[in-house]
Amino acid sequence: MYNERVIKEFSEPQNAGELENANAVGQVGNATCGDIMKISMIIDENDVIRDVKFKTFGCTAAIATSSVATTMVKGKTIDEALKITNKQVIEELGGLPSQKIHCSVLAEEAIKEAINDYLQNYKNKKK
Questions:
Q1: Which residue among 30, 36, 45, 68 has the highest number of C-beta atoms inside a 10 angstrom radius?
Q2: Taking every pair of C-alpha atoms in the chain, what is the biggest distance, in angstroms?
Q3: Reduced to 3 DSSP states, what percent helix, strand and coil does the chain have, rounded to the nearest 5?
Q4: Residues 47, 24: contact at Cβ < 8 Å?
Q5: 103 catalytically annotated
């Protein structure tokens, strides 16, 4: 069902955990499957994502997409990170079964939620 890359990202996820001093946090879930994904970030004054971690309650695909998505945004500006799509996450993983595509959508949404949190609650208050 899953390819080697998906299994590797699930077995040895990158960026797992939570950042205590995060200034951007996004949490999303899927009521149908029960997956919950939380992404925390540290975004610097130049809008660059300096660090990112995830906590995911879910299946193999949910954890693998969280791992890959966090790797994809680390070091990028928030504008660059907002352009990352669930399709790019799937491509980076080398594919996902069709019934698991929603996990990549959660990853994209969690990134956007975290960045929106930063823009609403941190950046705008600094001005």
A1: 68
A2: 49
A3: 50, 20, 30
A4: no
A5: yes
Which residues are 37's β-sheet partners? 28, 56
59 in catalytic set: no
25-78 tens-digit pLDDT: 999 998 777 899 999 999 999 999 999 999 999 999 999 999 999 999 999 999
Q: Which of 103, 106, 107, 115 is catalytic?
A: 103
Cβ atoms < 10 Å from Cβ of 69:
29
Q: Find how far residue 1's CA is from the centre of its chain.
A: 22
From 33, 59, 82, 119, active-site residue: 33
Task: Quote the tokens at residue 92.
Answer: 């980076």
Q: Which CATH class is domain 4-126?
A: alpha beta
Strand order in the sheet with 36-43: 24-29, 36-43, 49-57
CA distance 56 to 96: 17
Q: What is the pTM of this model?
A: 0.92
